[in-house]
Design goal:
This protein has helices at residues 35-39, 41-49, 72-82, 95-102, 127-130, 134-140, 159-167, 174-183, 202-214, 225-234, 240-249, 253-266, 305-316, 337-346, 358-366, 379-385; strands at 14-18, 53-57, 86-88, 109-111, 145-148, 170-172, 193-197, 220-223, 270-271, 275-280, 283-288, 302-303, 320-324, 351-354, 373-374. With 390 residues, it is of the alpha/beta class. The protein is elongated and about 70 Å long.
Amino acid sequence: MIATLDELDVEGTTVGVRVDVNSPIGDDDTLADDARLRAHVDTLSELLERGGRVAVLAHQGRPGGDDFVSLESHADRLSELLGHPVGYVDATFTDAAREAVRGLSNGDCLVLENTRFYSEEYMEFDPERAARTHLVDGLESVLDAYVNDAFAAAHRSQPSLVGLPTVLPSYAGRVMESELDVLGSIGETPEPRVYVLGGAKVPDSIDVAWSVLEKGLADHVLTAGVVGNVFLIADGVDLGDASSDFIYDQGYWDEIDRAVDLLDAYGDRIALPRDVAVARNGERHELGVNALPPGDGESAMDIGESTLDYYRRILADAETVILNGPAGVFEDERFRAGTRQLYDAATDSPMSIVGGGDTASALRKLGVDGFSHISTGGGAALRMLTAESL
């Protein structure tokens, strides 16, 4: 069993709390969306109310990216969300950082600088080697305990995630605890169990499909989005040059062969779109697969009403639905219907679980709710949903 905050004697304890607040960043290099910060409010509030001295560790963006910025605006927003002053220091494990952590009193909270400002944190190590990195060596002496609440990053083997718990008493935060409770028992959820795989992360989705079908976790796999387009091409459907070129440009052409193999092995359990929506004369226009290919320059941007009817019939019998990835280009109002209606239908199932990342973002933008569980993680959720270890 993984220890939780219930087992941690918090008062007077200096706790390093790893969270995942990797968020959209505005043109002014400050936080543009606080959804991921809000997810950690319960964990941080509890530690502060119980008299902990909290040092927050987190990353933001990737080296070279526009969103690779400091965590100062994150600290400011956390102050507002917690209703409690939150400090910030522009260092992570230096003398300045250690001095700031030592200066914490009971009930104080401090955000340390973006862990990925240091090259080791962008590398992956086994836990024992991670425990010998500068980040861990620099922080170990000023921390009494470690709490991992960063489920969305928990599939990565980086120093702040696997090194610190190697050298400190360690606990799961409330986000991590909830995610493990739900996603860690996916094989025990009620059947029939239906996986809905959409979005544009084709290799990940095909990995999921192979895994859940081989392990008998899925009674049906419904495909949509770019994933659905790849399966249509694998099934011999001509989606036209625009959709095919996009798949090729993304480096996904080899995934078509994998999709062919999947259809050969499990075709009776994999559902493909029966129609697609394209932009024609500025409007949404639906085409059945028998009417394809579309016109020049027209791409498959969404699933159509015939597909939705087909998928609704499958979902109506499902006891558990696991969804990952939107059904189309939901950012465009013309192509929101597939995602909105498909996800609405899934909420009628007794158990409905949504993978994180882009899917959770789509649901927030579309105002769809009513799910049993919406994960905070993308890649980590996929690992758990295929019964793989983090």
